[in-house]
Amino acid sequence: MGKTELEKCLAGEYFNGSDNVLSEMTLSAKRILKEFNNVDYGNSAKQYKLLKQLFGRIGENVCVDIDFHCEYGKHILCGNRVIINMNCTFVDNNIIEIGDDVLIASNVQIYTATHSTRLEERIVRNWQPGKEICHTYAKPVKICNGAWIGGGVIILPGITIGENSVIGAGSIVTHSIPSNCVAVGSPCRVIKTIDNQM
């Protein structure tokens, strides 16, 4: 028996996003997000309850500001004491793992889904309704404990941000970043290391 489309998705293989299971995951997430983004901002208990329904895992003392957007929600695994500021978008076709004590500033975009740069590998010939429009695969993203992701950062598929590292505002992260450093730019590169001895 072959892999399901969800199994292909999580294995980093081409998957059909129009598959019934994946489509239902998207629909469920969008419904929860609509409610979450319209909850009275003072009702943190209801916000947290909705995040528990949305995320695959959520720790304690997690604050996610509005407007927040994601694809499936269930592939977001969030640790403790995490701040996700306003207007963030997480395209979580594959796993987005966020450690403890992570700060994610406003307008951060995290992508796990991608396509081939070669046209022949990207488009679907003889497309028919109910099939994928383009060939898509997804790679996981990991943000390790203590990291700080600055405003407007874009993190591309397959990236790991090391422990305690800081990604400067506006950076586009195209390669994994080691622990205990400051990295900035487009493409993002390490500019200094940090002594995080406590």
Could you name the key traits of this structure?
globular, alpha/beta, 26% strand, seven-stranded mixed beta sheet, five-stranded parallel beta sheet, 198 residues
Topology:
Layout: H1 5-10, H2 20-38, H3 44-54, E1 57-58, E2 62-64, E3 68-70, E4 76-78, E5 82-84, E6 88-91, E7 96-98, E8 103-104, E9 109-111, E10 113-114, H4 119-122, E11 137-138, E12 141-143, E13 148-149, E14 154-155, E15 160-161, E16 166-167, E17 172-173, E18 181-184, E19 189-193
Parallel strand pairs: 1-4, 2-5, 3-6, 4-7, 5-8, 6-9, 7-12, 8-13, 9-14, 12-15, 13-16, 14-17, 16-18
Antiparallel strand pairs: 10-11, 18-19
Helix pairs in contact: 2-3
Structure characterization notes:
The protein has helices at 5-10, 20-38, 44-54, 119-122; strands at residues 57-58, 62-64, 68-70, 76-78, 82-84, 88-91, 96-98, 103-104, 109-111, 113-114, 137-138, 141-143, 148-149, 154-155, 160-161, 166-167, 172-173, 181-184, 189-193. With 198 residues, it is α/β, with parallel strands linked by helices. It is globular. The model has no long low-confidence stretch (mean pLDDT 95). β18 (181-184) and β19 form a beta hairpin. α2 packs antiparallel against α3. It has a seven-stranded mixed beta sheet.
